[in-house]
Design brief:
Elements (H helix, E strand, L loop, with lengths): L5 E8 L21 E4 L3 H7 L6 E8 L5 E4 L3 H10 L9 H9 L6 E5 L3 H11 L5 H10 L4 E5 L2 H5 L1 E8 L2 H28 L7 H4 L2
Parallel strand pairs: 4-5
Antiparallel strand pairs: 1-3, 2-6, 3-7, 5-6
Helix pairs in contact: 1-7, 4-5, 4-7, 5-7
Amino acid sequence: MNQSSNVKLFHGSKSGINGKIMPISRELCDFGKGFYMGTEETQPKTLICNYQSATMYGLELDTRSLVIKDIPLNLDWAMFVAFNRGRLTKDLSPELFAKYESYKDGVDVFKGYIANDRMFVVLDRFFDGEITDIALVESLSALKLGIQYVAVTQKACDAITVLNERVLTAEEKKDLIKESAENRKLGVSLANEICKKYRREGKYFDELCK
């Protein structure tokens, strides 16, 4: 899908961006290796708040010449995250692995929801076989997830302009660490409620992979 406008986004870096922006995050992220940006400032802040030189960036992405693939918030999103995080392997399910590998064909940017602090807990329980797909999908609508844009090609990275940068203060980082811990606690609480309510409905991760 091609879009025709500039998008204002945020990026958090552990030690600041040095040199050219490139799609070189660690491999096992939500949408694979790329340069991650969010529509909300708080989410990237909580990811970098434990680092001494944590730096926030305001960015603009020119989408006019880019192919953007939108991942809707449903079970397909969760399985794509499982694929990118190495939980859905070729040995586990060759067909599903091939399906999600093909998602990358010709795509410059993935757009979709972030597995934030609260959702991270629920996703792990799904991957570990503790809750079913129905429980997972029910939880998606209960959590306020931000949107992320992930530049997976150098072409997409070259379309990013840095508008501003700011190193987080010690006080900010202290508050963010507390907020992140509270979000994870909420995620655990929600996962426990969902697990009880939907324990006999739907399929588990390993069943979906068969």
